[in-house]
Amino acid sequence: MTKPLLNLEKTEQLRSHAAQTEHPRELIVDVLRAIQEENGWVPDEGIELAASILGLSPLQVEEVATFYDKIFRHPVGKKVIHVCDSICCWSRGGEWIVQILREKLGIDLGETTSDGEFTLLPTCCLGACGEAPAMMIGFTLYGNLDAEKIEAILAKERSGGRP
Ligand code: FES
């Protein structure tokens, strides 16, 4: 038997929340995040499940899923590195930071390391322009990046976040 995309308790909790919400569309990201937390990413069946929980069409859910770059529609590594490619980071060496990450991880943007640990993705402004160049791993923001700092961050993240 295949594992459900979302456990029954969570599904019912979200369904009941949606039923009490005037605009269930506001919950699309929450439902997609719940599905992603259990599966690592959101397959097509996850879009259909979210639509059925919220009483929306799969297209309405898909529109949000593809717009929001923290929802993954393809399998990703255990940790996703979002490296900022917006103007402040770009003007402060963002391209060089991407190059360092590509070399250290041995992958290109959009790819996952062979050990399944990291996926490297470009992202728009992370709201940390004052600390540009910046990247985010999971929910942790890292700024003022340079080669040395990236080396230390990757080592820490590889060891499960322990310093
Ligand atoms: S431009 Fe990179 S954090 Fe804002």
What fraction of the residues are assigned to beta strands by DSSP?
A: 5-15%
* Average residue-wise pLDDT: 95
- Output the CATH homologous superfamily of the largest domain: Glutaredoxin
Largest sheet: 4 strands, mixed
Binned, the helix content reads: 40-55%
Strand order of the largest sheet: 2-1-3-4
CATH architecture of the largest domain: 3-Layer(aba) Sandwich
If you consult CATH, what is the topology of the largest domain? Answer: Glutaredoxin
Low-confidence stretches: none
The gross shape turns out to be elongated
The tally of domains stands at: 2
Report how far the terminal alpha carbons are from each other: 40 Å
Brief descriptors of the model:
alpha+beta, binds FE2/S2 (inorganic) cluster, 163 residues, Glutaredoxin, four-stranded mixed beta sheet, 4 strands, Arc Repressor Mutant, subunit A, 7 helices, elongated, 2 domains
